[in-house]
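SEQUENCE-TO-STRUCTURE ENTRY
===========================

Subject: a protein chain together with a token-level encoding of how that chain folds.

Sequence line: the amino acid chain in single-letter code, read from start to end.

Question of interest: how does this chain fold, as expressed in backbone structure tokens?
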Amino acid sequence: MSISKRISGHLSNASWIRKLFEEGQQLSQDGSGPVYDFSIGNPELEPPQKLRATLRRILDDNTKGLHRYMPNSGYPETRQSVAKSLEGETGIPFDMRHILMTVGAAGAVNVAIKALSDPGDEVIATAPYFVEYVFYAENHGAELVAVPPGTGFDLNPEAIARKLTPKSRIVLINNPNNPTGVVYSQDVLNRLGEVLRDASKRYGRPIYLLDDAPYRKLIYDMDRCPSVFHAYEHALMATSHSKDLGIPGERIGFLAISPRCPDGGRVADAAAFANRTLGYVNAPALMQRVVTELQDEVIDLGWYRRKRDRLVSALSNFGYRVPPPGGAFYLFPEAPGGDDIAFINKLKSLRVLTVPSSGFGVSGHFRIAYCVRDEVIEGALPLFEKAIRG
């Protein structure tokens, strides 16, 4: 065999999201009509104008050394800007020592797992979960352990408690959740914090709570997203500006370590080392300088809210069971008939691309990414109706 046996096995189970996205690219070129692609969270909303203006100004700056290496944790001024924003968001006194700039949220999650776990350790995740978590854990010799969700796809701290063992090292959550759009409340996060505090004491080493939070600023029904930093001292947050600034291709994010973490200094040192040795070295210099000035900017949430409300209303009228999401830009309806793969194939035959919930560790639902143009939604609605009634 010419490639790794492990990777060969993974290729046959690769992400449904990317698979369908690539199929959509092929379908769009076959000349048979439009494709209505809801498969991937690739925002079609352009970044805020301030980002463009800031980028132009920095590109025109002739100061020498702007594109050279910097500390592996990132530019001090960028980290301090992030820390100041987080302090305003949480009321907790962050400073630059608690921030590591990363290559997107995915880079931050991988850095955290590498820094905190040893081979054979366990990473606990609540289903449905972003499928890449399986591979992120395996990248560092850890094992992903799935936990069933609570009612309405909420976190279930009691179920997590039953899964914890002496090998458990990280509980990985995604708030707001992809694929469901569920926003975990502060109460449920506090309950999870109590579970982890008790288990850490019982096993004689900390179990870390890692929040993968690239959608935390995309929430619709509350002022701000509940925070793991209020729930638990051994908490970290991995995030990016892919969604809140609409720049997923720029790969800029950060890892934040709770100022209340007793061993936070060692965690920060380990994360900076992992950032370098995993090959990221440092987050992109240009985008670090840009986001330094944009920590409190967010794309137009009204753009997403209108699409959410239009789809929820129309799909509900057609007969779909689809709860309105509290955050992110995904719907997670029940698959009519209960077979999510059969139903998404039915939609695909109508040139509508969605993702089966089997790709996220549960069955019987499908995901719609509504970060698309209005004409895509309007063109697809008659086909969604045909699929459920035909």
User: Anything to note?
Assistant: The mean pLDDT is 94.
